[in-house]
Amino acid sequence: MTEIIQIDTHTWIFEDGFVRFFLLEGVDKAAMIDSGVNSADALAIAKTITDKQIILLNTHGDGDHTSGTGAFSEIHMHSVDYINCGMAVKYPETTLVELNDGDVVELGNRPIKVVYIPGHTKGSLAFLDVNSKTLYAGDSVQKGHIYMFGEHRDVEQFEASLEKLIEIKDEYDRIYASHDECEIPKDYAERVREAWIQVRNGCVPYEMIDLFGNKVRSYTTDICGFFME
Questions:
Q1: What secondary structure does DSSP assign to 39-62, as a single string?
Q2: Which residues, other chains included, contact 44 with Cβ-Cβ below 8 Å and sequence gap of 6+?
Q3: According to the model, what pLDDT value does residue 79 have?
Q4: What's the sign of the alpha-carbon dihedral 32, 126, 11, 185?
């Protein structure tokens, strides 16, 4: 059962158990940021909230963020993840609207700026709600464990993407994450970078775990965690 939490007059959180996604309404249309893992009916639910046209923006192509994709005719995301994560195969009726770094999606007096942050996946995006100074960071910045194993990851770019978010930190006052706690402090990209450097330098112990049939190293810090090969 998807739980809906209203943040303000025109913004909602959808909690579907394992992950959360969001609905942002502008004057002309609305945007759903991701569509969860247990929410094939995400669009139908959103239509009970707003009568505006709803477009789908995806932070990345992992399956826990895409369950409602089939109800849309278009999906706005980075082309790398659309291809690498098999979106065209999984959702053949869906057309890609390619998003790139610096693009602005205008909802009507509510511009959403696209920030390309490869790392968690090679096509990961963050979405900056310019007027409210809110950054929707997907899985790249959070208090939980960040998945950094598997063919879709870009370990070499992850730190650079965190630095990019740090460079633009004056543009946002808060970060909304897809997992663990929803609203996290604006300096959390800096904290995740600190944790990443500690892990990269071998300063954090790990335990081997089985995760969905994969043997991975699980690193845990006071800031966040990482699952790595």
A1: -TTHHHHHHTT--SEEEEE-S---
A2: 71
A3: 98
A4: positive
pLDDT for the residue 164: 98
DSSP-based three-state secondary structure for 14: strand
> Which residue is listed with tokens 């900056």?
128
Closest alpha carbon to 145 in 177, 175, 174, 180: 180
Any idea of the CA torsion for 15, 16, 20, 23, to the nearest 10 degrees? Answer: -70
Q: Is the pLDDT of residue 1 over 90?
A: no
- Supply the DSSP symbol for 91: -
SS3 123: coil
Nearest to 94 by CA among 65, 62, 123, 66: 66
Q: Are strands 183-185 and 125-129 parallel, antiparallel or unpaired?
A: unpaired
Close Cβ partners of 87 (under 8 Å, ≥ 6 residues apart): 61, 66, 69, 75, 77, 81, 94, 96
Query: 159: buried, middle or exposed (CB in 10 Å: 19+, 13-18, 0-12)?
Result: middle
- Do the beta carbons of residue 107 and residue 33 sit within 8 Å? no
pLDDT digits (tens, 9 = 90+) for 193-220: 999 999 999 999 999 999 999 999 999 9
* Token pair 């939980």: residue: 144
Tokens 């209203």 — which residue?
Answer: 6
**Which three-class secondary structure state does DSSP give residue 153?**
coil
Our measurement of the distance from residue 162's CA atom to the centroid of its chain's CA atoms, rounded to an integer in Å, reads: 14
Under the phi-then-psi rule, with left for phi > 0, alpha for psi from -120 to 50, and beta for the rest, what region is 118? beta
